[in-house]
């Protein structure tokens, strides 16, 4: 399977990164430093110490992506022709990801029967490279965003779509935040799968918050069916997907519309802030090309669903349905901007919602002896990236997935997780094998994607 790695070693750190796939959009994802204006060049630290100028341009293009340099002229695209040397790869990893990743990749490649002499020499050549903050000096688009009011002036109808399951306490706060929005031409569609459904709750919410709510009652506990049903029933020109355990500011809808207007793109991916799990990434603070799609906070033009279809129901009661949809959009050349202004606080409550049906994340099943990772994760990765990448992902992530989600990203618990993985290695191998077999069955069955 053809890849578009900016540096091949990125596959060890981000094996299923959207941008590892070939670009099909009519914009410059990887920009050519030589063709940029001086203001943008000044934000980049051009590094001539690579083996050739063309490889140094790859480094600059990676910086540009991370700093939010958005170029909509495909003539500014960098041609990824000459492959980086082995020493270039080690330099790149040491520069942007640090010594620990260099050592990990070195060991991984030795266990993969790479030439040890070549690996040692290449790693040694990068020894003096200091780690760099690739997110320093990002582009500031605040002036452009503030001047983007044409779409707001036309006041298009926005359809806010919320699937819910046994979360009325949190859903009330969600609806209160919607009632306080500065932009008011929107409808709210809620697909309720609770037992029992509390119809009086919605009547009270409409009265308290001045909302018009279209309630859809669904007996089947199925998240993607719920979202698909609401999308079909919606009337808005723009679809805004939301979760039932989130809090947003009064300018949330407005900021999504400003982003779509300012950059003339199809998707505005809002950022999700949470105190549970990993720390908040630095790039959540500025606009950039988005490498993910979170169905708890994303606005898109209705035509997106007409182009790519609705959500794949192979993901019911599993994980990564939104990730698959994001990859599908990317593969069709649909533009997606990460929008720091359209933020939400994701409460990630422990009861109700998808967690009642599935798991905390794709690598942490609710039951100890359930398939690991969740089969839908392997289904998605093998479909878009191939089986070799799926195996690499399993090797990189499963050993760190043993501890509960609340400890995710914490060093001492990562170490403990790896130790438990080593101690119970046969058990985890069985989990992976079962997951792989289930994913194979899903791939054989094929996607369950309906048209809008």
Automatic annotation (TrEMBL):
InterPro entries: Glyco_trans_2-like, Glycosyltransf_2, Nucleotide-diphossugar_trans
TM stretches of this protein: 415-434
Keyword Membrane belongs to the record: yes
Residue ranges of domain Glycosyltransferase 2-like in the record: 159-271
Gene3D superfamilies cross-referenced by the UniProt entry: Spore Coat Polysaccharide Biosynthesis Protein SpsA, Chain A (3.90.550.10)
Keywords, sorted A to Z: Membrane, Transferase, Transmembrane, Transmembrane helix
GO molecular function: transferase activity
Top-rank lineage group of the source organism: Bacteria
Listed Pfam families: Glycos_transf_2
Protein name: GT2 family glycosyltransferase
């Amino acid at each position: 399977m053809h890849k578009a790695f900016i540096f091949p070693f990125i596959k060890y750190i981000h094996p299923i990164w959207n941008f590892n796939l070939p670009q099909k959009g009519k914009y410059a994802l990887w920009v050519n430093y030589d063709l940029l204006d001086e203001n943008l060049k000044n934000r980049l630290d051009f590094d001539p110490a690579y083996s050739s100028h063309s490889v140094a341009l790859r480094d600059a293009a990676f910086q540009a992506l991370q700093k939010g340099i958005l170029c909509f002229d495909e003539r500014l695209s960098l041609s990824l022709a000459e492959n980086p040397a082995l020493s270039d790869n080690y330099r790149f990893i040491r520069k942007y990801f640090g010594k620990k990743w260099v050592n990990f990749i070195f060991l991984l490649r030795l266990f993969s029967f790479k030439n040890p002499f070549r690996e040692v020499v290449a790693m040694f050549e990068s020894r003096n490279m200091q780690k760099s903050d690739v997110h320093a000096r990002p582009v500031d688009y605040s002036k452009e965003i503030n001047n983007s009011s044409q779409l707001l002036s036309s006041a298009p109808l926005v359809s806010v779509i919320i699937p819910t399951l046994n979360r009325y306490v949190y859903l009330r706060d969600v609806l209160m935040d919607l009632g306080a929005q500065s932009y008011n031409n929107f409808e709210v569609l809620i697909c309720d799968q609770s037992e029992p459904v509390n119809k009086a709750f919605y009547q009270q919410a409409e009265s308290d918050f001045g909302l018009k709510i279209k309630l859809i009652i669904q007996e089947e506990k199925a998240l993607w069916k719920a979202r698909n049903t609401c999308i079909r029933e919606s009337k808005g020109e723009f679809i805004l997907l939301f979760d039932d355990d989130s809090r947003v500011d009064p300018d949330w809808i407005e900021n999504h519309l400003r982003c779509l207007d300012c950059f003339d793109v199809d998707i505005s991916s809002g950022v999700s802030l949470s105190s549970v799990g990993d720390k908040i990434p630095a790039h959540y603070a500025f606009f950039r090309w988005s490498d993910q799609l979170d169905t708890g906070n994303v606005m898109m033009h209705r035509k997106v669903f007409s182009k790519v279809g609705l959500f794949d129901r192979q993901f019911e009661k599993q994980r990564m349905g939104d990730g698959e949809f994001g990859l599908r959009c990317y593969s069709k050349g649909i533009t997606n901007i990460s929008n720091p202004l359209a933020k939400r606080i994701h409460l990630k409550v422990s009861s109700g919602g998808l967690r009642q049906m599935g798991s905390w994340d794709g690598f942490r099943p609710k039951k100890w002896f359930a398939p690991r990772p969740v089969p839908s994760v392997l289904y998605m990765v093998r479909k878009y990236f191939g089986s070799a990448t799926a195996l690499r992902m399993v090797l990189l992530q499963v050993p760190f997935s043993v501890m509960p989600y609340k400890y995710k990203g914490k060093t001492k618990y990562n170490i403990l997780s790896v130790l438990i993985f080593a101690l119970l290695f046969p058990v985890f191998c069985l989990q992976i094998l079962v997951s792989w077999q289930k994913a194979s069955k899903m791939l054989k069955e094929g996607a369950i994607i309906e048209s809008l």
